[in-house]
Design goal:
Elements (H helix, E strand, L loop, with lengths): L1 E4 L5 H7 L5 H9 L3 E5 L5 E10 L3 E9 L8 H15 L4 E7 L4 H7 L3 E6 L7 E7 L1
Parallel strand pairs: 4-5
Antiparallel strand pairs: 1-2, 2-3, 3-4, 5-7, 6-7
Length: about 140
């Protein structure tokens, strides 16, 4: 598996799968190098990870997506560790993410060393768990 920054040629792949990102923001996230693309040995896209910044200064992982047939092979873990290393190289000492309390992802993040840091409760939504990790 290769992990690299998304390019404009990845736009359609991301657009077709990322239902949480406004269409108008995809190109700016690509230009800002805030989306990593995961590719298999044949160069085919198999997933992505995108992030932003909480309070405009703390890297915040917004979304990991692995195409169904590639799940449970360690690709999610690999991209998280890759991202953490990249954030460390740029001088960051803390990273964040979140997940819904009714999702299994919370266990994935805790296995990777993320700690519960709080929560957010929006009307008619499950509890959103905020997680942090010192890197």
């Amino acid at each position: 598996m290769n992990i690299e920054f998304a390019t404009e040629s990845d736009y359609q792949y991301i657009f077709d799968r990322d239902k949480h990102l406004l269409k108008s923001l995809i190109f700016s996230k690509i230009a800002g190098k805030e989306i990593y693309i995961l590719r298999n040995q044949n160069g085919e896209n198999i997933g992505w990870m995108r992030y932003g910044y909480f309070w405009d200064n703390t890297p915040f992982m917004n979304m990991i997506w692995i195409d169904k047939k590639y799940r449970n092979n360690g690709f999610g873990k690999n991209v998280v560790l890759f991202w953490e290393d990249e954030m460390r190289k740029t001088g960051h000492k803390l990273v964040m993410t979140s997940t819904l309390a009714n999702e299994e992802a919370q266990h994935f993040y805790r296995k990777l060393g993320y700690k519960d840091a709080g929560c957010l409760l929006l009307e008619n939504e499950p509890l959103e768990i905020l997680l942090t990790k010192v890197i």
